[in-house]
């Protein structure tokens, strides 16, 4: 069953078409990896799902509710309700530097959802354990490695109990040796059947973990299929050319 339906999404900055009639679906519990060269519109498309980018045309439906329909957005109250079901993990962590790790996790559930202190503390302790950072609860982000910061960011996204997790190049700001620890946490979450949409340049991860891979170039979906179809038997020359460069 489709939990996200995107159809004919268009976005332009002036004369530059960033998204051209992008259409795809994501099913409940599915892990979808979005790959493609820099500047192909991947991050813009992902950010539009949580209304961090406004599109110029097309529709986005999440759990059968329209965020935007034929370029017209729903009212702001409903926008908030729909986007609150999705958690976003950014390339550059976006942690509050003046707050400890546990306070970073606890801020939104307390202030946005009004959850009780007991609940929030219990949940933050559980999630820090899940991402292997129980010992860092009282530490400020400045004292953490990039990989640790990204794991905190993932735990923070999970604090809001999202139905869908979106990842925008979660490892591209990390040194290679720190990348693996973040990918391991993402793998673990995928195994729990969380619906995930991941913009990534980690081809091995996309191949191993994704149920489906979407290749984008110049603002368009060029090809989509299982990892085996895309990596071993791409149908389109542009996909083949990109993978030849990315894998060698």
Describe this protein's structure:
- With 248 residues, the protein is α/β, with parallel strands linked by helices.
- 38% of the residues lie in helices and 27% in strands.
- A 6-stranded mixed beta sheet has the order 7-8-9-3-10-11, sandwiched between helices. A 5-stranded antiparallel beta sheet has the order 2-1-4-5-6.
- Helix 3 crosses helix 4 (117-130), helix 4 packs across helix 5 (146-158) and helix 5 (146-158) packs parallel to helix 6.
- The model has no long low-confidence stretch (mean pLDDT 94).
Concise structural overview:
By secondary structure, this protein is of the alpha/beta class. It is built from nine helices and eleven strands.
For the largest beta-sheet, the strand count, sense and barrel status come to: 6 strands, mixed
Uncertain runs: none
CA(first)-CA(last) distance: 36 Å
What string gives the helices and strands in order? EEEHEEEHEHHHEHEHEEHH
Helical content class: 25-40%
What is the strand tally?
A: 11
Tally of contiguous helical segments:
9
> pLDDT average, as an integer?
94
The shape is: globular
Kindly provide the radius of gyration, computed on alpha-carbon positions and rounded to a whole number of angstroms. 18 Å
Derived structural class: alpha/beta
* Portion in beta strands: 25-35%
The main sheet orders its strands as: 7-8-9-3-10-11
């Amino acid at each position: 069953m489709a939990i996200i339906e995107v159809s004919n999404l268009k976005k332009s900055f002036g004369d530059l078409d960033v998204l051209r009639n992008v259409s795809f679906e994501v099913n409940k519990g599915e892990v979808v990896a979005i790959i493609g060269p820099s500047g192909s519109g991947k991050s813009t498309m992902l950010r539009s799902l949580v209304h961090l980018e406004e599109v110029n045309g097309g529709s986005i439906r999440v759990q059968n509710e329209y965020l935007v329909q034929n370029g017209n957005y729903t009212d702001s109250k409903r926008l908030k309700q729909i986007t609150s079901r999705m958690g976003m993990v950014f390339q550059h962590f976006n942690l509050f530097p003046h707050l400890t790790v546990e306070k970073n996790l606890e801020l939104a559930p307390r202030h946005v959802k009004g959850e009780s202190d007991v609940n929030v503390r219990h949940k933050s302790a559980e999630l820090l354990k899940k991402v292997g950072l129980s010992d860092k609860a009282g530490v400020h982000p400045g004292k953490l490695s990039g990989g640790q910061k990204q794991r905190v960011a993932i735990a923070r996204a999970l604090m809001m109990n999202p139905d869908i997790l979106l990842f925008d190049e979660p490892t591209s700001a990390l040194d290679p040796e720190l990348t693996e620890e973040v990918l391991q946490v993402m793998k673990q979450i995928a195994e729990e059947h969380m619906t995930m949409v991941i913009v990534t340049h980690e081809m091995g991860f996309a191949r191993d973990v994704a149920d489906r891979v979407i290749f984008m170039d110049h603002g368009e979906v060029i090809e989509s299929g299982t990892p085996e179809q895309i990596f071993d038997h791409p149908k389109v020359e542009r996909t083949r050319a990109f993978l030849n460069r990315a894998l060698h």
